[in-house]
UniProtKB/TrEMBL annotation:
Hydrolase in keyword set: no
Boundaries of every DUF1996 domain copy: 33-283
Keyword Isomerase: no
Swiss-Prot/TrEMBL keywords: Signal
Signal peptide: 1-18
Stored Pfam families: DUF1996
The name this protein goes by in its record: DUF1996 domain-containing protein
Species whose genome carries this gene: Lentithecium fluviatile CBS 122367
Length: 338
């Protein structure tokens, strides 16, 4: 099945919970990063974060139980207190100032305040059987995908499946590119973050937050590729879809006169190759394992849900207190674009 058909299958019709597909409202947007820069308020660059409201400056995996410390989640599934985050896209105006690009909900999730759509899958997205066995993450598990310092296509190839889609309409799912779209995208820019699917089975984290997970040794997750002996445990594939609502910035007259595209990540990257995402596991008890073991598609009856209005109510206080929304003379944190 093609991506477009899939989009029609559950993007454009009333989505129930697919293979595990669910919307999450914005929990907060601030310059914090408890995975890479724990204890730093502020962290170097701005992030947009979804999930449980235990999100904080420090979330040490030994002492910070996301489930116990959260009282709500911005996600549709109420047993998911995980946190997921990415950098933030800014538009750079001709006069050199920066404006934060808003995020928009996908069709069928109208009225969601920004946020992302999250997937967990046992097999390729197009495989409606979802029969393969996956082992759910353990409490304290966390990981990072992507590299904030990358600026070239060759570097970006280290990570499969961190891509952009220039949305012509709500159903556009191809082509996917490794760098920012070069033309205005009428329905926005979708950023896709797919995490690795093999785990070493031992470490909840690693010094670079990446080495305890890996891609299949041969083939891909989609082709049923086997995990390497060093990382033998097959974990669910997490996919995050973020739709950056570029509508206000699509007038070519606002774009740079040299023909380049005007969007930059809050980490100072105008290529798009530094795209990255962070994950802190925080599902209650064995709710995620049970849901994955049910091998359902488009319906996950074992999981409890809440309304979008309830999701939108779950936020965390602004702990950094800086202006992120004016026409800024510099990116938050004074990050240089290079
Ligand atoms: C964040 O951590 C601080 C220090 O431990 C604590 O006082 C505060 O209540 C926490 N904030 C939230 C929203 O949990
Ligand atoms: C810079 O350009 C933006 C977009 O055109 C505009 O809204 C803003 O007011 C301008 N700022 C200054 C200081 O001229």
């Amino acid at each position: 099945m093609k991506w477009n058909t899939l989009a029609a299958a559950f993007g454009l019709v009333a989505p129930s919970s697919a293979l595990l597909r669910f919307g999450c409202s914005q929990l907060t947007v601030q310059r914090l990063d408890p995975l890479v820069n724990p204890g730093s308020n502020p962290s170097p660059h701005l992030h947009q974060i979804i999930g449980g409201n235990s999100f904080n400056v420090s979330m040490d995996h030994a002492n910070h139980d996301l489930v116990a410390k959260s009282t709500c989640t911005s996600c549709q599934f109420t047993e998911d207190f995980s946190n997921y985050w990415t950098a933030v896209i800014y538009f750079k105006a001709r006069n050199g100032t920066y404006k934060r690009v808003p995020q928009r909900p996908q069709q069928g999730m109208e009225n969601t305040n920004g946020g992302m759509v999250v997937y967990y899958m046992s097999d390729a997205l197009f495989d409606t059987a979802q029969k393969s066995k996956v082992t759910a993450f353990k409490p304290g598990f966390r990981m990072l995908i992507g590299d904030v310092n990358y600026r070239t296509r060759e570097q970006a190839r280290d990570f499969r499946q961190l891509t952009y889609i220039c949305m012509q309409n709500e159903g556009t799912r191809e082509p996917e590119t490794l760098d920012f779209p070069t033309k205005p995208c009428p329905a926005g820019i979708m950023a896709n973050h797919r995490f690795p699917t093999c785990w070493d089975g031992v470490n909840l984290d690693s010094p670079n937050h990446r080495d305890h997970v890996a891609y299949p040794e041969t083939g891909t997750f989609e082709s049923g590729g086997k995990c390497p002996a060093t990382h033998p445990v097959r974990i669910p594939q997490i996919l995050l879809e973020t739709v950056w609502d570029t509508k206000k910035f699509n007038d070519k007259a606002l774009w740079p006169s040299d023909g380049s595209q005007p969007f930059v990540w809050s980490s100072g990257d105008k290529t798009g190759f530094s795209t990255h995402a962070d994950y802190l596991f925080g599902w209650k008890d064995d709710s995620l394992q049970k849901a994955m073991d049910a091998h359902t598609y488009v319906s996950t009856p074992s999981l409890k849900t809440q309304t979008i209005a309830q999701q939108n109510k779950c936020t965390v206080p602004d702990m950094v207190r800086e202006d992120i929304d004016s026409w800024l003379t510099a990116l938050p944190g004074g990050v240089m674009v290079n």
